[in-house]
Batch of 2 targets.
Target 1
Amino acid sequence: MSSLSIQHLLGLQNVPKEDIALILDSTDSFLEILERPIKKVPTLQGKTVVNLFFENSTRTRISFELAERRLSADVVNFAASSSSVKKGETLLDTARNIEAMKVDMVVMRHSAAGAGHFLSERCTSKFINAGDGAHEHPTQALLDMCTIRQKHGTLEGLNVCIIGDIAHSRVARSNIYGLLSMGANVAVCGPPSMFPYDLEKLGVRMFTDIDQALQFSDVINVLRIQLERDAGAAFPSLREYHNAFGITRRRLDALGRDITVLHPGPINRGVEIESEVADGPYSVILPQVTNGVAIRMAVLFLIGTRAE
Amino acid sequence: MASFVFKNAHIVDPVSGLDTVKDIHVTDDVIAGIGDNLSPAGADVIDLAGAHIVPGLCDMHVHFREPGFEHKEDIRSGAASAAAGGFTAAACMPNTDPVIDTASVVAFIYDRAKGLPVDVYPIAAITKGRKGESIAPMVELREAGAVGFSDDGSPVHNTKLLRTALEYGSMFDVPIIQHAEDPHLFTGGAMNESVVSTELGLPAISRLSEDAVVARDLMFTEYVGGRYHLAHMSTIGAAEAVRSAKARGLKVTSEVAPHHFSLTDEEVRSYDSNVKMNPPLRRMDDVIAMKEALKDGTADAIATDHAPHAGFEKEVEFVYAPFGIIGLETAVGLSVTELLLENWLTLPQLVEKLSTNPRRILGLPEIRIAEGAKANLSFLDISAQWKVDVNLFQSKSRNSPYHGRTLTGRALGIYNNGQLVLQR
């Protein structure tokens, strides 16, 4: 098996297409492991992985932890709420202290864009970004691409539309970078107040009409509307958002053809997506979650066993 | 008695029109003679062949952090940094603790700077505590020696207060210096808004934030009069607004920081917090607009916005890092490299931007290189190539994005207040 050119997985921007393809291709064998009665291989035995989570996360952290344990890594969980961060320690000091305990890999989630980039240049561990601010969430985009490939056989030439708050979404950015480099056509849809500045320069189409966006799309990736964010600033109400951009069964049925619906979760039923869609035939939301564990096993394996 | 002869240097003084190779003899703080082959008895001879002597440079926008934040910089270390950068004067901003909003803090600054080779002039706050609520006692502050008024670091955003400040401030011949930024557009921003901020997912500060406030402020200046100075101008829009205001005859001046004519927001891709400042690094078209503004006189001064921060404060996640970089010790190199060598400015014009104009804006005495005048001189080697090494800086802080960069042109030293400071 060939190996990755990248040393860390900080994002998908500027990651060679061959690396993305290698991760996606490797995932199949890990999916097979997940179907076994004993879901564990000794691949990362003796390696120590720290899950450094400075932001709340349930699903991503569990997904990473399961992936690490199924590869037989020693796993340490660090949550900011229970840490020295509250005592005013800097990120760099926290990381260096943990590293002094001899760890091999760090999986990090942080509210600041570039936090992984910052640490990877100052530490010796290998870093996997589990989400940094509004920057990137590469393993989410990889599992999205893996799920799309499962259903469509390829990413090349597919029309994929990301719907929602693009400006604040790390999932959107990683998907845009990954999908474009794998040859998909990428669009976004939402109110223009949720598009970041000069977004079109990234090579994506922009829709503000949800039905036109659906016409374009083979696949839609529906972003969570962050209720906890100051959402009122970018759109007037959840009701208006749902009416204008919500994914409903009626809208999808009106297409008269198949369409694939992804959602990175957790979903707000009745806001960005109707229950009938989330639980219905177009949805691949639960396969995404399963693929997430396999993708993270692939990433941990490829980064963790990469020769220096 | 100090007595020196500076031999064989090329003297450039846009005020007296001097542009010639001569010797200068100084005794204490007076120019005793200018001529050929001067050799007065008892004078120390400093050979400056190949170098330029210009009127002492003045940085009208620095943060010396004293009182309150002496771990970043203090007046002594700030003055040493200024001297190393070829400056004989610096005007320090009032975002200290306590804020420079009473006569006693103004007096404290002058007291701390006493006896230094660099003149340090306090700029006082426009509003009490820089809180933007009510104007500071400007008469008292001006009488104590404040050379300008600014809430720098924060804008005066309240339009009523801005009007009052311009009107009240028009009693004095010193400027109201605005940090132009719309707080509603700014919220949480860490870099310029552009395709780069979109790619990096960093919260962004749009050019609108500066443009809108400058446009508004100039309307007010036109309506009520007063002297308005735009600090750290960084956008095409602000430059165009100032240009048109000057054409209409308003009493408006502006300054540009070296980083805004030498770096773009592409630098932020490194997530290095030493490229984080406010206003942020903009796009290349803004950088070119700043050079054009300096060339056509829209921008009167080059001012560094020297903003020291300790390493532990800067070496954090980009969004959490404080704004600002130090600039005194790279200003000459960047000005020569980016403006002189690229033919945007001639050397006399560069001296105007770095000495004559900032002094005029702040109402400071004019510096002339002439017999009997005060000896206030900067020594420059405009052809020296050197590699920036922050570890050799005189500043207490190291937060410069230019570390490792090769520049052309550097300061060799200064002579002011009867004191010679030479770089070696």
Note: Chain B has a mean pLDDT of 97.
Target 2
Amino acid sequence: MVVPPIIHCDISSNNVLLDSQYEAHVSDFWTVKILKPGSHTWTEFAGTFGYAAPELAQTMEVTEKCDVFSFGVLSLEVIMGKHPGNFISSLLSSPSAKIAYNWPLIDVLDERPPQPPKKSIVGDAILVASLAVSCLSETPSSRPTMEVSKMLMTGKSPLADQFPMIRLGQLLYH
Amino acid sequence: MERELWGSVFIYWVLLARPLWLVSANMEGDALHSLRTNLQDPNNVLQSWDPTLVNPCTWFHVTCNNDNSVIRVDLGNAVLSGQLVPQLGQLKNLQYLELYSNNISGPIPNDLGNLTNLVSLDLYLNRFSGPIPESLGKLSKLRFLRLNNNSLTGPIPMPLTNITALQVLDLSNNQLSGVVPDNGSFSLFTPISFNNNLDLCGPVTGHPCPGSPPFSPPPPFVPPSPISAPEGNSATGAIAGGVAAGAALLFAAPAIVFAWWRRRKPQEFFFDVPAEEDPEVHLGQLKRFSLRELQVATDTFSNKNILGRGGFGKVYKGRLTDGSLVAVKRLKEERTPGGELQFQTEVEMISMAVHRNLLRLRGFCMTPTERLLVYPYMANGSVASCLRERPAHQQPLDWPTRKRIALGSARGLSYLHDHCDPKIIHRDVKAANILLDEEFEAVVGDFGLAKLMDYKDTHVTTAVRGTIGHIAPEYLSTGKSSEKTDVFGYGIMLLELITGQRAFDLARLANDDDVMLLDWVKGLLKEKKLEMLVDPDLHSNYIDAEVEQLIQVALLCSQGSPMDRPKMSEVVRMLEGDGLAERWDEWQKVEVLRQEVELAPHPNSDWIVDSTENLHAVELSGPR
């Protein structure tokens, strides 16, 4: 039996719960409503400000790419240690003003874990950041699918040796 | 023979009537032209005032009704100097005379008393001298009279008390003297309206008039008398210092007196003393209502009196004991943290936003379990209800009215952003929050409530705020609002005003063509297919060029990048006919470049495999 695709629509750090082994579990399915195709019942925004895809400002078509965007915000929040609102603001600015692409990755990472990080951790951080930046693309079709994201997370990054010099914009071309 | 004679009479009558109509239109143009010749205009604001045109309705800063008669003159902040002319009294249908914040001097002409349709007379922040004309008492429809910050002398004319419609009066910062009336419409006004004059007296000033017996002890919240100006040859520095100190004292004194009075007042327990009438307390123009009074007004918040439901609570229609109609907003109980003092401080902040295009807060009610706000009742509901829930007997909004709504709502939002201190971001700009008074003037409602509900700006929240289709993209993705999120909401509201449809339904139409909403609108504008956008209820009774301009403003306001959107003050100027063409051309060039960039191959395209493109997704959603 094929289960139809489900779009969560409210991925945020509040809705990802952690068990005793720090395994992540997506929650908040029990409040969902199934909308019939073509219905006009959904006129209130029901996601979380700060995690919703920008194209929802002018389209009623909710796709899985909305969840991918929210996942990108969540991923960046995990490695930054705070909500990445400023970074997203910069991404959504005019092309000439995407100053966040020049930010060094080392400045973006949460500074609270003990320093200096091991090379393997650096590699993982680069993978997460690379994935997050791609998920936050303004154009929905430019975002990866969750399947692609899953595969990327198990790979290795050849950029680890250049960690101090890496800027976020470079990660788009990984 | 008789039939022939009757026909001749008819033809003669028509010929006679037409010249009269032309003469009437020219008379108003001539009157305004007299004003132009009497003013110095260094910024060429009046350059378009061409007396050779058939009427003044195409002049900038002049607004006419459907009969080509002048109803508005908007010349605030225009760097004009010189004097007014009595011919202004010939503008019989004038409703708004806005000349504030200029350098106009000389007397206020007596002939302004002939403007019997005048709603707003704003001459504040000028250099007018001489007396306030007694003839202004004939302006029976006047609601806003602001003559503050001039050099007016003499007494306050007693006939002003006859203007029953008067809601806002400001005569402060002049050189007036004599008795301040406290009867008629003046019974509503407080010392704020009369501060900082030469020698005013009377109960409202706290200063007894010479020769009259001392009145009963003043109410505790009345401030001390205003500072009288020093005589003749006092040093300028001393005057400035005295004025500054006096102003500081005047601002502080009411708060001090009120705090003292509140401390003396017993703790209020509504249920213990059901029959007791709360004393009337006025904070500035704001009244504190008792819960019982509002329960009586709304028939104990009866469901049949519900005007609407919003994110902040339900709104009820009510009638106060003085007969006036109000809208009572009952804030949701679980959303009102914080103490009484905090709520009251924020209510006072909202009540300071006074503008003809903003919904005026009349009062509030606080109990341990209730927080209510009292607003004037808006006879014509909201733009949303007029467009989509119109009863059969009510005419649809015509095009000139829609244009006026666009301009009025822009002015209200611009005031919130640029003149309120601290600035107020509305956060929920949409057709349902643009109310319409009995004259279909736009009145922006529901502003300032986000702060009142204690939503923290700096924290991402799961609360539902805003309506799908009206939320700016950066607000969705970052959780941060600014005045530019209001501009986005305004742009979408303009599209609703033009099309008559909800943003939600517009987005569905666009989706049928497989494009985003704003790209869809852009395409129709480019192809000149206005009829596909304009509300069918207008029955083609609109001017193509004006529709195009309004759509251009809407598109400029709803750009994806906040930095690219105009400010609301710039929107006001564009709607008044200044600067839209240049802004639009500039944007067109940028758009061409943007499209070229978007056509380039995307660097991510190689490794992205979108395997779910054609699958039908079940949409799930729900508040947290």
Note: The domain at 378-592 of chain B is CATH 1.10.510.10 (Transferase(Phosphotransferase); domain 1).
